[in-house]
Design a protein that fits this description.
This protein is mainly α. The protein is built from 22 helices and two strands. It is 73% helix and 2% strand. The radius of gyration is 24 Å and the shape is globular.
């Protein structure tokens, strides 16, 4: 509907930009980013309903919000399954062992810089950029200690590497996941972005490394960590789950979330085995007979003994991110119901052209965050070639690295290295990240331009 000049539509714009202003200043005002957008989503859809009723269209708003809710539900369940797997791997000690090994090797600062960046780049496509950035940032902070310059440079390197690695995998970033679930790019076609993404990180990392000392870190305490029982089984189940999600989508033409939730069921079954094993190990033998340590109910036993519980790992999911995603999808969907997305699509993709617009998407991602920007593009659904959809996937994924607030990875690392890695410390090196951004686009055109219709 064309309601862009309706008073309700204009008020909805004010509400959206007001809420997003609070999101941008999340680090300063310490207000979780999900809260303002959830409230904004509710008011925007109320205004949509008011506007549609005013033109005697009483049921259209209900149908439109149902579409937005369905899109959110698919992505929510997909991400919830993936996050639960990642949290279980963390609980089983996978990431702790990796961190302890890196810290105990006594590498030089420059070598740690390159090793953590390399691991972040190749780990992000599987474990997602947010988790990867958090794990690798703890290594940088532990090794850097009071060396603020190294911590800043190392954190920037981690954020850039994690975002670049996530740009060529549906499991690496929410933006690539959205593009894949919409069926706009096939799973294997994302691999065309491997080299452009790698160049994006290497150009920036090469510049940053010139400012990193080759000295040994000072007073680094060794860490001890060990894998818990079943750690590698969880990793194997996660890989099987990824295969199922891809196969269900590619061969059966069903939503990939079906494969992810089935894989989550496998993890729950294995979790039952872990619980039974913990109960068995909690028993003691008195006069040849096994006696339980406690005679309380099963729930009390699990609480007292800290038995494995998959729902504890599910509770540790990034709920702020998931709820933020809900708010963004409904806010953008509501603005689309007023006709604003069609208007913007006409102005940008028709007047400026897809190439210029898709490159600008990267800069918008750095300011606004790549999730709402990519969702807005998907809602506009412009007629573009596969090459252009890959281009916007690349720019939205790596463009968010130019500012620390442009990606979930950057915001999370700012929280970990609070007071050291900040918005302004990142901003000082934004020029180097921008050079990597330009280089990645150039490589994409050189490698993939001939194979796709421009």
């Amino acid at each position: 509907m064309e309601l862009t000049t309706h008073w309700a539509g204009l008020l909805a714009l004010v509400i959206f930009f007001g809420a997003y202003t609070l999101v941008i200043f999340e680090e300063n005002i310490h207000l979780r980013k999900s809260k303002p957008v959830i409230v904004a989503a509710g008011f925007i859809w109320m205004l949509v309903a008011v506007a549609y009723v005013s033109i005697d269209n009483t049921h259209a708003a209900e149908e439109l919000i149902g579409k937005s809710l369905l899109e959110f539900t698919e992505l929510f369940l997909f991400l919830l399954a993936a996050m639960t797997y990642v949290n279980t791997m963390q609980e089983r000690g996978i990431f702790s062992v990796l961190r302890a090994w890196l810290i105990n090797q006594k590498y030089s600062l420059r070598k740690i810089f390159w090793i953590t960046g390399t691991i972040a780049f190749f780990m992000s496509p599987i474990a997602d950029n947010l988790t990867t950035a958090l794990v690798m940032a703890t290594v940088i902070i532990s090794v850097g200690g009071e060396n603020r310059k190294f911590v800043v440079l190392g954190c920037i390197n981690i954020v850039v590497a994690a975002n670049a690695g996530g740009a060529f995998s549906p499991f690496g970033d929410i933006t690539t996941l959205m593009v894949w679930q919409q069926g706009l790019v096939e799973f294997t076609e994302f691999f065309a972005l491997v080299l452009p993404s790698l160049v994006n990180w290497l150009v920036t990392a090469g510049i940053l490394s010139l400012a990193v000392s080759s000295a040994q870190p000072e007073n680094v305490q060794e860490e001890q960590a060990q894998l818990q029982y079943g750690a590698w089984v969880v990793v194997a189940l996660f890989l099987l789950t990824i295969v199922m999600a891809v196969s269900v989508h590619n061969f059966l033409h069903l939503p990939p979330v079906l494969g992810m939730m089935t894989g989550l069921g496998f993890l729950q079954l294995f979790g039952y085995h872990l619980q039974q094993r913990d109960r068995t190990n909690s028993q003691v033998v008195v006069d040849g007979s096994p006696l339980s340590i406690t005679t309380s109910r099963d729930a009390d036993i699990e609480t007292s003994k800290n038995f494995y519980d998959i729902y504890k790992n599910l509770q540790k999911a990034e709920w702020d991110t998931l709820m933020f995603f809900y708010g963004v999808i409904l806010c953008v969907g509501g603005l689309g119901a007023f006709g604003y997305l069609a208007l913007v699509s006409e102005l940008m993709y028709t007047d400026l052209g897809p190439t210029t617009t898709n490159i600008l998407v990267g800069f918008a991602s750095a300011i606004v965050d790549n999730i709402p920007v990519m969702f807005a593009v998907l809602e506009m659904n412009p007629e573009m070639s596969r090459f252009q959809w890959l281009l916007v996937t690349l720019t939205a994924g790596v463009g968010g690295s130019m500012l620390s607030i442009g990606s979930a990875a950057g915001v999370a690392v700012m929280g970990q290295a609070r007071g050291v890695y900040t918005f302004f410390s990142h901003l000082k090196w934004s020029w180097a990240i921008a050079l990597g951004y330009v280089a990645s686009i150039a490589v994409h055109f050189m490698l993939n331009g001939d194979g796709f219709k421009l």
